[in-house]
Amino acid sequence: MTGDAILGVENLNLRNRAGELLVRDVSLSLRAGETLGLVGESGSGKTLTLRSLIGLLPEGIRETHDARLDNPNCAMIFQNPESALDPLCPVFRQLCEVVRVRQKAGRDEARARALRLLRRLSLPEALAKEDRCPGSLSGGQCQRLLIAMALACRPDVLLCDEPTTALDVTVQKQTLELIRSLQRELGFAMVFVTHNLAVAAQLCENLAVMQRGRIVECGPARQILTAPREEYTRMLTAAILPVPERRR
Predict the structure, then answer these.
(1) Angle of CA points 69, 219, 11, to nearest 5°
(2) φ/ψ bin of 140: left (φ > 0), alpha (ψ from -120 to 50), beta (otherwise)
(3) What is the torsion angle, in degrees rounded to the nearest 10, for the CA atoms of residue 75, residue 77, residue 78 and residue 80?
(4) If exposure means fewest CB atoms within 10 Å of the residue's CB, which of 124, 125, 180, 234 is most exposed?
(5) What is the pLDDT of residues 84-105, one digit of tens each?
(6) Domain architecture of the chain: domains with CATH
(7) Cβ distance 191 to 67 under 8 Å?
(8) Dist CA 115 CA 150 (whole Å)
(9) pTM assigned to the model
(10) Residue 50 half-sphere exposure, CB side, CA atoms within 13 Å?
């Protein structure tokens, strides 16, 4: 890890109860304001690595490492917004609770700050008066609520676990643009997990490519896209569909 890192791990290994190695010798380091894309196919170990960084490993997963730098001020956007939100609790109440706990705000101030977050993320202000449970909102609205809750933590590091996978293309584009603009404005560092190299390239200055629990290649995004060294990375770049030319 570099001396100016705010989050990192060296030689991370994760095993299941049977002793099977799921993540092997992974080293990551993140500086303030930096954006790192963790890319690879499903089952490559991306989500487990991300959960290790925030200390939310599933039960039965055992971790070892040579060195580790934790950051207590992390927030996470989960892949499935419907399952990440409490289905029985109205969403504005959930957002207010996050503000109260993480910002040490009183009840009235928490409501005022939560309302400002609704406005910032283009969510219906009516939720503050006529609160609703997650099941009555769209997938895009639930995802924006998760982003609002993450921002309510005022994080140094934002961890994103494929937050646009379940969204349609239009909402996905809007969500990515929102995350990118918020990072420019607020200056948090970010680790963005995705199986889509094109999505990672839009957001991230650096990429780490994972295959079968190992990082096989890492470096600046432009370098990874234009001159990949590993065959697996070349396969991922080849999977990016070009925009077809329109015939005259």
Answers:
(1) 35
(2) alpha
(3) 150
(4) 125
(5) 899 999 999 999 999 999 999 9
(6) 1-73+155-248 (3.40.50.300), 86-152 (no CATH)
(7) no
(8) 15
(9) 0.89
(10) 28
